[in-house]
């Protein structure tokens, strides 16, 4: 797998048949290791180990409906009241972050209404604070640390 612009973590990779698997600390099971999963696991550990987000407030691949279509979010962090707070869309490192990717996350967030949105391909990371009253995305220079929220 590619080196990413995220802190390394102690990952557990095993092989099962033709597939490599990576242990997911939230789902507590091995997941097929794809390039996107590699980014998601790195970003998950970054949220927990470096930005100090509680594991108990994070979900992976949460299902949501938008215009009667079933969508899945890569990572979603909830506030203490159980409301979506930070939405993270992960792409494989070779996938550029384009306007289409930003639109995809914006569509997901119309239903979830998370205050912060992050898009990452493991190399580039973009974070915005969302103002739903004005329908504006304010770019942030850094992803917020949990204790500063």
TrEMBL record:
UniProt-listed InterPro entries: HSDR_N
Domain Type I restriction enzyme R protein N-terminal, first and last residues per copy: 35-144
Pfam families membership: HSDR_N_2
Protein's name in the database: Type I restriction enzyme HsdR N-terminal domain-containing protein
